[in-house]
Amino acid sequence: MEICSWNFPKVGNGPTESEDAFHYNTEANRFAICDGASDSIFSGQWASVLSENFVVKSPNLTDSEELKSFLDESREIWLNKVPWKALKWNVKNKAVRGAYSTFLGIQLNDNSSMDCFAVGDCCLFLNRGDSFESFPLKEPKEFGVHPGLIWSGYGNPLQNKEYDAKVKILTTNFDLSGVSDIIIATDAMSKFIMEQGISVLPEIKKNYESQSYFDELRSNGQMKNDDVSGVLISF
Amino acid sequence: MTYEAEISRRSPGLFIFLLDQSRSMSRKITGSGHSKAMEACDAINKQLNELINRCTKSEGIRPYFDIGVIGYGYRSGEARGLISEKPISITELENHILRMEKRTEVIDGEAIEIEFPIWFEPVASFDTPMKGAFKIAKEWVQSWVGEHASSFPPVIINISDGGSTDGDPNELAEEIKNIETDDGKVLIWNCHLSEKNERPISFPKIELELPEDKHARTLFEMSSEVPDPMVAIAKEEFSNVENGCKAYVFNANLEELIKLLDIGTRVVYNRVE
Fold first, then answer.
1. Cis link prior to B227 (omega < 30° from 0)?
2. The whole model's pTM is what?
3. What is the pLDDT of residue B269?
4. Which of B6, B9, B56 minimises the CB distance to A90?
5. Given this model, what pLDDT does residue A226 score?
6. Is B98 on the interface with A (CB under 8 A)?
7. Closest Cα to residue B115, out of B106, B103, B105?
8. Distance of CA B27 to the CA centre of its chain
9. In this prediction, does ipTM exceed 0.90?
């Protein structure tokens, strides 16, 4: 298994300002990618916590109890990462409302099948030779402005308020026979892949480390100017 | 297409608020126990706070907007910048805070104390030199557009309860509305406050929708047509909004004032990157 990954901020933003995050754990065969919502703050941190906690703790998200534990733990980690007492008035006023992020996690089962969990518009693509199969979105027109999101719950001073995330996770399972590559990506990248089709894969493999490649795509309008990130798994 | 430029740190937007500070603003606004001056002042302070909120990231405030506030009538025949002598970046607004108030905000049924900044206090003093205010606004807009030729065009929101006392501002308003960036012409929104308990007229399309009121006709004429990309957003609050309507509310009570300000700013910050 060969893994390539990339995460570049939107054109005009600084190198640390991407609110996308991904993590993977090859021992557990788990990969996750999340896109922190820019309407909220500390959402990049929330995206990072969700993706990391998924690959490290290996929760079974189809089990409601494990899902709840996963969210509770993630929330606790996020709360501890934010320096609540040091926040300025304006940051504090906004941060109390919590952070939001999309989520996509996958679990490979001995490279023969894969379980997938998605909230929002991060997508995965399976290379079956002549075309991509995608999940959870199938067509570029499905990308909208209000994707499903996972909420962190409130921040300080409402951090102890009861937390009910009411997350609606889409789950599916794929047979991996005949699959040579898997890509998981945030929305701008996913829409681009859907629009370009399978023929874009060699280009991505060649350029995934090049910020200028993604900058040009976003500057010439081929890709939305957004944070762009993805993980490419090749067998 | 126009009014579709993305607002970013390299290409910010500009809001200019014009606030009537004439004596008649001391009367109570419909829908509130407070004066028009107090409610209008509070509404603009809230909008500035909301704009800061929109621009706030975990590392601080991003310079997506420049802001200017002009008060007119605080002294006979005079208009002036209230927060600063010219528009400033939203990142500088916190350096101009007059004082901080503790306010209670209810979130999901829980009351929490927040810090609320006040940039200026209510004033209701003399006459209504609206023309003088628009003259300053024109200078600000001309200068700003010269430096931001490809930006989303400036939006001027004027809050008043009456007619200009220093001449007809209409010609000046026309000149301002003809100033443009590559993305469209400058927009003027007018909010005509009321102290009467009468039905407001919001986003009228034709003059015939207005009552016999010469000040209403003047402000109607001065107001920009709401650009098509903004109509959908205005419709969320005002169901009667149609393509071709004017950015004007006549006989606005407190609720209408807040809605107009909210729409006027929301249509712009929806363009933030």
1. no
2. 0.87
3. 64
4. B56
5. 92
6. no
7. B103
8. 20
9. no
